[in-house]
Amino acid sequence: MKIFHIVGARPNFMKVAPVLRALAGRSGVSQTLIHTGQHYDANMSDVFFQQLEIPVPDVNLEVGSGTHAKQTAEIMVRVEPILLEGKPDLVLVYGDVNSTVATALVCSKLGGRFGHVEAGLRSFDRTMPEEINRLVTDQLADLLFTPSEDGDINLRREGVRADKIHRVGNVMIDSLVKLLPAAQSKSKNGIPGRYALVTLHRPANVDEETALKGILESLLDVSRDLAVIFPAHPRTRQRIADFGLNTSQLRVLDPLPYLDFLGLQSRATVVITDSGGIQEETTYLGVPCLTMRENTERPITVSTGTNVLVGRDAKKLRSELTRVLAGKAKRGTVPPLWDGHAAERIADVVAGARSRADLQ
Ligand code: UD1
Fold it and tell me: Three-state DSSP class for 117?
């Protein structure tokens, strides 16, 4: 069976790594890895391939940045000939980025079969580009691999056939489980004993001056109690510069490699973020997470994990931080099937589908 994996952005890389590894051990499977080039800076891409031990992509489509329409269209135009020529039996796409939805559209219009890893997540907020990507991708997918029960429920509500849905658990946690020891053995030089670790990149938080200014003021307030370590996404760094905002009390860094970030995350007093994946990683690690969003497509991190949604409400952030500093942070449990073996379960499903007909 010929399988093509298509990835493009940083949060895809920790998801594809364990799936490539799990399928490499299955007989009769050949794999091709295609990078769309949606993320192209070395510290957003290459270093993740090295640390996650992902093979060099067979193809890099080098699409780069652009508006959503331009980026999505460019990926479609460049993916189509690769699929026409390569004729894979199955394409696998990951997460909810523009590379995911662009590939889903091309694949289904060519009549090809594709599977979506991390299917069924919903924020119910259609102002988020990722929600549109998730909805479209899941309507078109032939195999839907969900990380938790809420994913299955959402898909069934949207009319997806039950036999297409496979609850396999969380592949991103597979990478975490494998690499946590290496991450924790990284040097702690220069890292304070207690700190808040911050990431922000959602357009709703960083693209508008008043919103970003308000968030940075909240973070300056946090820095009165705790060191604030803030590895900034290129988009965020650019906006801070464009708006001339004050970050003097924050330790703003370039984006960090996977192991460095995971090590910092695992020892953080608290994580403040608007990322999706970090809500899951903190839940697994048992680290308090304050999410600067009004909603989440990962509700299990709130219902059973360590995550609290604080939106952009400075008072709520302050009161939750006070709870954390008083040792009264929410304690969570790890959701079922977040056990380091999700990719093996995907490989069981994929390798068990012997022909194209089986994938229908
Ligand atoms: C993308 C994903 C988002 C994911 C995030 C993780 C979509 C719709 N969004 O958002 O879901 O959480 O990745 O990082 O796919 N840039 C660089 N170098 C890079 C990549 C981007 O400088 O390697 C800058 C460019 O100015 C670019 C901007 O960041 O215009 C945004 O990049 P883009 O890939 O469009 O979206 P992200 O915000 O990274």
Answer: strand
